[in-house]
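Researcher: Next entry: Guanidinium exporter (Diaphorobacter aerolatus).
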Amino acid sequence: MAWVYLLLAGALEIIWAYSMKQSYGFTRLWPSVVTITTMIASFGLLAVAMRTLPLGTAYTIWTGIGAVGAFVVGIVVLGEQVTVMRIAAAVLIVSGLVLMKLSSSA
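Model: Predicted structure:
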């Protein structure tokens, strides 16, 4: 179950990153509310996952899901630039996540 909580926490991190961008520095109410709500839920799920998973594994995977997810949302939804270097960086992050998962005993 810890892995499910961690994946949900990572998904919520993507949502709060996107809604934070949409809040324009917390100057728009509803995107700000979504940001804060999903942040709290994401941190809460991460904390529950960390009851079982090692700190390094849980935190690395949580931030990696958020980073790669935000990268994809930036490209697909916000029309951000796609370059070979950015794609390579995302591939390296995902590779690190896979290695972190494979090295975890939990």
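Model: Note for the record: Residues 2-103 form one domain.
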